[in-house]
Amino acid sequence: MANLGLSGSFTLGDRQVHRLGYGAMQLAGPGVFGPPRDRAAALAVLREAVASGVNHIDTSDFYGPHITNQLIREALAPYPADLVIVTKISARRGADGSWIPALSPEELTRAVHDNLRNLGLDVLELVNLRSMFDVHGPAEGSIEAPLTVLAGLQAQGLVRHIGLSNVTPAQIAEGRRICEIVCVQNHYNLAHRADDALIDDLARETIAYVQFFPLGGFSPLQSSILSDVATRLGATPMQVALAWLLHRAPNILLIPGTSSIAHLRENLAAAELTLADDAIRALDAVAGTVST
Ligand SMILES: NC(=O)c1ccc[n+]([C@@H]2O[C@H](COP(=O)([O-])OP(=O)(O)OC[C@H]3O[C@@H](n4cnc5c(N)ncnc54)[C@H](OP(=O)(O)O)[C@@H]3O)[C@@H](O)[C@H]2O)c1
Hints:
- The chain is an alpha/beta fold.
- Helix content is about 35%, strand content about 15%.
- The protein has a single domain, classed as TIM Barrel.
- It has an eight-stranded parallel beta sheet with strand order 3-4-5-8-9-10-11-12. A two-stranded antiparallel ribbon has the order 1-2.
- The longest helix is centred in the middle third of the chain and has 15 residues.
- It is globular.
- The site of NADP nicotinamide-adenine-dinucleotide phosphate has 28 residues, from α9.
């Protein structure tokens, strides 16, 4: 079993987590919609993650919708004391699986209560507000109105900590004037490095950067450089991609997603992989060679 302690630790909100965690989005059905193809396998992945030491799981009630959170509750409740479950709000799903912005006060409040109910919790440890000006990537626009609603839910004791997702530096600055922001969850990986400067800025402020699509998302990264480095190290390309992220900055927390126990074990073993300087130099060049 992998020693996740080797990935390092970071304070998320006020809880210590291993820097290598797990993202639960892949557990829902195809397109993150509907039930999983194999429910028993999905439950087994969650149990294996926690048994392996994972203490940071990323989810949302709009995965399924509702289904991923219900799987987490069935597999893991009563939850271990050290487990931090992070969720996100601001979208709902159409009957066709589409992602529809849901940012009115009523929708945000309902989303927090849906997460509480489906996860079986009295309080949500950390809720990310996902900006939806452009569903595919950060786009400018004020987040003041929805973030003020979420801060109000925090004041009511329903939410302990707040993060932002799919946001620009200007939105993070705006958000920090409204409430404490403990993490940012944006798209970033070996090949998609638009947030390089932002990550370093957040590291200086000791704010966690929890990237989504650490392995490339629905189409995992493919690069001859990555494969060559992996072959030299006797590791897999996905392990090298994760080890590079752990090396990239101390505030990076990983939530690779998988519906497979074999992939989960492979990904968690990346905690034990150390990259030498020549490997890092080679991997730094991947961004210029892969389109994302
Ligand atoms: N804030 C946001 O807007 C947002 C958006 C997307 C995701 N997220 C969060 O970020 C987490 C991570 O993102 P993600 O799951 O979409 O993408 P990811 O972690 O980059 O990659 C997941 C994909 O890689 C495959 N995979 C995983 N491990 C593998 C391995 N060792 N070898 C080969 N393939 C492997 C998975 O398929 P298998 O199931 O077959 O392993 C899946 O297709 C999500 O789970 C979710 O919690 C947040």
